[in-house]
């Protein structure tokens, strides 16, 4: 008397997706991602898609529909300072809220943590890291260094093989995120086709625009209880394109360093003017002169 | 004769899911889980061999299970146990230990009696398995 198309016994006849979304607790995390991370539109878009897929999968599971957990290994490519590590740690939290990974911690490693120094050293080392990452997210920064083309006997190959094996067999236990600069990652995937096919999501992190960087710097300062005076904001807006034109520009990281130096000058200026009583405003406001003293503003001498 | 050592040994053998739950309990308490194996079942045999190092800094039980399965693959015919070490001050000792793998046939123990001075009797238990050399005791 039971129709085959009937949902499994005990399953609710219909499920409110919005309600399910609210209960998953992922809404605030996505909102936080939107609020705290400036720019990065394609990245946010992809994360929202993944979140939607996992949520729908969860609802499908309640109806007893066929379910194959999706592969969520990812590769993040982008220039330095575009927020790859920050997004990775958010990713761990999102996947945890959606119930895809069990613990939601992030283990960030580089080649040194995976590859050993002598024969027989690599496998235990890599396995050790993988064991720690179980139930969470393993973030491999500058993953292309794992593979050294010029050295056939490099132990990196061994680490890659173990990684591939675990990525395949323990798909529902951990998510591996590979990160690095776009051109080098391309070469890495090219010489390791196994990786390419096991990594489902290739997310490219675009460079920040000047306005993005200005917004980022204000967020950074706000989190440190600093603020920019109107003139300082103007100076910073001029600073960013100048800094971008210089070599070794690392997006948000360069800006963070610039702000750190501005804080140094700010402190120094307050110190030089000792004898005065300091007001709360003086302690928290970065003035234009703190920024304009930067080497970037001096023509013909810009070294770094 | 089924040997009973450590926790849960009077219960039916734990399934992998139950083992996972126990390991997770240990990890949540911040204990380091360790895998040991032996083929000498005597209760006074406290020197079990270690499978790798104790596992520190783990968050999820699946990592331990991965090692346990690797150990079972090679030493599936022996006794394997998990123990969890609590390093916090005041404890600094093993908090839990339970058997997760046994040989198919546990032959049990023989009681040896020996006459000593006068009419004194001395007793010893000896595992039948211990008659054979190490590594060839089960299977």
Blueprint of the fold:
The complex is a heterodimer of chains A (304) and B (139).
Chain A lengths: L16 H8 L1 H11 L4 H22 L11 E5 L5 H14 L8 E4 L1 H4 L7 H12 L3 E5 L14 H14 L5 E6 L1 H10 L1 H6 L2 E5 L4 H14 L3 E2 L1 H16 L5 H22 L7 H5 E2 L1 H5 L12
Parallel strand pairs in A: 1-4, 1-5, 2-3, 3-4, 6-7
Helix pairs in contact in A: 2-3, 2-4, 6-7, 10-11, 10-12
Chain B lengths: L15 H13 L3 E7 L10 E2 L11 H14 L3 E8 L6 E9 L7 E7 L5 E7 L12
Antiparallel strand pairs in B: 1-2, 1-3, 3-4, 5-6
Total helical segments of chain B: 2
The secondary-structure class of chain B comes to alpha+beta
- The averaged pLDDT of chain A comes out at 85
Strand order of the largest sheet of chain B: 2-1-3-4
Order of helix and strand elements from N to C terminus of chain B: HEEHEEEE
* Inertia-based shape of chain B: globular
Number of helices of chain A: 14
The greatest interface here is: A-B, 14 and 12 residues
* First-last Cα distance of chain B: 16 Å
Gyration radius from CA atoms of chain B, angstroms: 17 Å
Write a compact overview of the structure shown.
The complex is a heterodimer of chains A (304) and B (139). By secondary structure, chain A is α/β, with parallel strands linked by helices.
Relevant terms:
heterodimer; A: about 300 residues; alpha/beta; about 55% helix; globular; B: about 140 residues; alpha+beta; two-stranded antiparallel sheet; 2 helices
